[in-house]
Structure formats: structure tokens, C-alpha cells
């Protein structure tokens, strides 16, 4: 009989799911990844890390309570990392109902199943810095007030409060990682930094004319995804379940990121074209958090500057072209 601890990862086909799978395999876990369809799941991340054949892939609808309950009964996981979500702010403005429905119902289904089937299962919820939205005080701290500004952010805030409520009401071990933007080669092309990197490379190769952008004067706190998943794992090994901020502690404007990448590729800044269609109905002007409590409680180290991050991402982009 397999004596390894079993960890379930929802959203295993996403950026974080792939890096977290790699980390948990290194720690000796049996990793079980949930996908929507066994016939057509995205293998890119797991293949990129060379771990596709080391994880067990299971089909399960997170919108179906019975399927989740049966899965927990048959597999007896010790930890569940809930990363599945419609994760794009832009898409959430176009598909608000689907975004809100999936990002909340999937979470309450998982929480109810844990409560009823095995309350000893530890649960990680992928909460988001977008929940803070309209901000009157920086840096963001663990107790900063939420004022979410997109359907995505509202869905994540609702899911977050479900988690807090199940932790407080039933004593379940539920930790919420409130992560700020984090990037890697595995980020989908529709997200900002990945789009800038792949566009800059294609423009430099003569395969694209320019980079179209929305509002690039907003500022965000960006980090490196493989380091951020370490904090997720550490949260479930910590003696106490709670909320943790995972961030770099600095913000940078999207314009500065573009100019840094374009300078590295010797491209003119005039190739950056604003497209009004890419400007969102509501936007957070500036956000960054304080990682100090998380660093000291979890012994999590993170010391990448924004230039370190961009250099690393450019290197990965070049290696994989
Ligand atoms: P991602 O690359 O967009 O991956 C999202 C995952 O969710 C994919 O595996 C996707 O599966 C799954 N998913 C989406 N809609 C689904 C549905 N209706 N049914 C079942 N599965 C569905 O996201 P990520 O960057 O790894 O982020 C992981 C989590 O952290 C997400 O919850 C995200 O909202 C949150 N988060 C991310 C960041 C960040 O900067 N990356 C920051 C804060 C919070 P398919 O392959 O089937 O589409």
C-alpha cells in the first residue's frame, strides 16, 4: 500500500498547479490533480517541468458536490490546494456570471465535503490581492479592508470569506494565501508580463508589428511563481491556519516594465500602442503589500527585485523560443 501523504491540487493545469506539483513531488507526496476533462486537459505546464507521468490526474467537476465527496472518500487526501478558478480580471468583466459562479460554488462544495467527510483535511485557498481593490493605505497588511473592483475580485473575496467562516465556525484547518501577481514562463499569454515578453521577442524577430496595451500607468506588485508556491506549501505545514500575504513589497508601473523589456530587446518605445478596448471599466491605480509577517511566520524567503524577476523571465522566454 502507498504510504505517501496524498495532496489534491485543483487547477493543476495552471501555472501555480504545475509548480506546486513539482514541489510536493519533491517533498514525497502522492500528487493528485483534478481536471475538468481527462480527454482534453492542458498538459503544457506538467510537461514543461517533466512531471506529467509522476502525478495522478483525475476528472472531477468542482461544481458537483457528489463527485467531490466520492473523491475525498476514495482517495483520503491529507491536504487540498484549491487553485482552480477563472483567474482573469479582464475575462471576468466579459463573463461575470460564470466567473462568480465557478469561483464561489467550487469553494463551498470543497469546504462542505471536507466538513462532512474528513474535517482533518488541511485546505489551502488561492485568494487574491485583487480583493483589496480601492485602497486608502499602502502597503496592504493582512487586516486591510476589501473593496473589490471587478467580478473576479468579488468572487475571490466571497470565496475567501467562505473559507474564513468555515475556519471560525467549524475549526477546520483552512489557510488563505492572499497572493499578489506572480509570473513565470508558464503564465498564460493573456496576462500582462507574459504578453509583453512574448510580444517583444516576436517584434524583435520581425513576426509582430507592435504591442497593444490598455492603461499602463497603473502599478502592481509582481513576484516569481516558483517561489510563491513554496509559501502555499509552508502555510499548510504551519501550526496555525490563518490568512497570509504573499508579495514582494514593491510596486512598479506597467509602463516601466514594458520599457525595461523593450530596452533589453533594443525596441523603440513608440512600438507600444494604446488600444481603448483594453482599458478596463474599473482599475486599481497602485497596490503593493507587506510580506514581513509571512516571511517571519513561515520562514519564507523572497528577495527578487523587479529587475531580477524580469531578467529571469526574459532568460526563460529566450530558452524556450
Ligand atoms: P491559471 O494559470 O489561470 O490556472 C487556473 C486553473 O483553474 C487552470 O487549471 C484551469 O483549468 C482551472 N479552471 C479555470 N476555470 C475552471 C472551471 N470552470 N472548472 C475547472 N477548472 C477551472 O491560474 P494561476 O495563475 O495558476 O493561479 C492559481 C490560482 O491563484 C487561481 O485561483 C488564481 O485566481 C489565483 N491567483 C493567481 C495570481 C497570479 O498572479 N497568478 C494572483 C492571485 C491569485 P483549465 O486548464 O481546464 O482551464
Layout of secondary structure:
Elements: E1 6-10, H1 15-26, E2 30-35, H2 44-48, E3 56-59, H3 65-75, E4 79-82, H4 89-94, H5 96-117, E5 122-128, H6 151-170, E6 174-179, E7 182-183, H7 192-204, E8 211-213, E9 219-220, E10 223-224, H8 225-237, E11 243-246, E12 252-253, H9 254-264, E13 272-274, H10 292-298, H11 306-319
Parallel strand pairs: 1-2, 1-4, 2-3, 4-5, 5-6, 6-11, 7-10, 8-13
Antiparallel strand pairs: 9-12
The structure holds NADP nicotinamide-adenine-dinucleotide phosphate.
What is the helix tally? 11
Main-sheet strand order equals: 3-2-1-4-5-6-11
Bound molecule kinds, no repeats:
NADP nicotinamide-adenine-dinucleotide phosphate
Tell me the name of the CATH homologous superfamily of the largest domain: NAD(P)-binding Rossmann-like Domain
Amino acid at each position: 500500500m502507498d504510504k505517501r501523504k496524498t495532496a489534491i491540487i485543483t487547477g493543476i493545469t495552471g501555472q501555480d498547479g504545475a509548480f506546486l506539483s513539482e514541489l510536493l513531488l519533491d517533498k514525497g507526496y502522492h500528487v493528485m490533480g483534478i481536471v475538468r476533462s481527462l480527454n482534453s486537459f492542458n498538459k503544457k505546464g506538467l510537461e514543461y517541468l517533466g512531471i506529467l507521468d509522476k502525478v495522478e490526474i483525475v476528472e472531477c467537476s468542482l461544481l458537483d458536490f457528489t463527485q467531490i465527496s466520492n473523491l475525498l472518500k476514495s482517495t483520503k487526501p491529507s491536504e487540498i490546494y484549491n487553485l482552480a478558478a477563472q483567474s482573469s480580471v479582464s475575462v471576468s468583466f466579459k463573463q461575470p456570471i460564470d466567473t462568480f459562479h465557478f469561483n464561489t460554488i467550487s469553494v463551498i462544495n470543497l469546504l462542505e465535503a471536507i466538513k462532512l467527510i474528513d474535517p482533518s483535511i488541511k485546505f489551502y485557498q488561492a485568494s487574491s490581492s485583487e480583493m483589496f481593490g480601492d485602497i486608502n493605505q499602502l502597503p496592504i497588511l493582512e487586516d486591510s479592508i476589501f473593496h473589490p473592483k471587478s467580478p473576479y475580485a468579488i468572487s475571490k473575496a466571497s470565496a475567501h470569506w467562505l473559507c474564513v467562516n468555515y475556519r471560525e465556525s467549524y475549526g477546520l484547518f483552512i489557510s488563505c494565501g492572499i497572493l499578489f501577481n506572480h509570473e513565470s514562463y508558464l503564465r498564460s499569454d493573456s496576462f500582462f508580463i507574459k504578453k509583453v515578453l512574448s510580444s517583444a521577442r516576436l517584434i524583435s524577430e520581425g513576426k509582430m508589428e507592435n504591442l497593444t496595451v490598455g492603461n499602463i500607468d497603473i502599478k502592481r506588485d509582481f513576484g516569481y511563481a516558483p517561489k510563491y508556491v513554496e509559501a502555499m506549501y509552508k502555510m499548510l505545514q504551519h501550526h496555525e491556519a490563518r490568512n497570509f500575504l504573499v508579495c514582494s513589497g514593491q510596486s512598479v508601473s506597467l509602463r516601466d516594465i514594458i520599457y525595461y523589456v523593450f530596452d533589453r530587446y533594443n525596441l523603440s518605445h513608440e512600438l507600444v500602442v494604446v488600444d481603448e478596448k483594453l482599458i478596463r471599466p474599473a482599475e486599481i491605480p497602485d497596490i503593493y503589500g507587506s510580506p514581513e509577517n509571512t516571511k517571519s511566520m513561515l520562514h519564507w524567503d523572497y528577495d527578487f527585485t523587479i529587475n531580477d524577476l524580469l531578467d529571469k523571465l526574459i532568460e526563460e522566454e529566450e530558452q524556450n523560443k
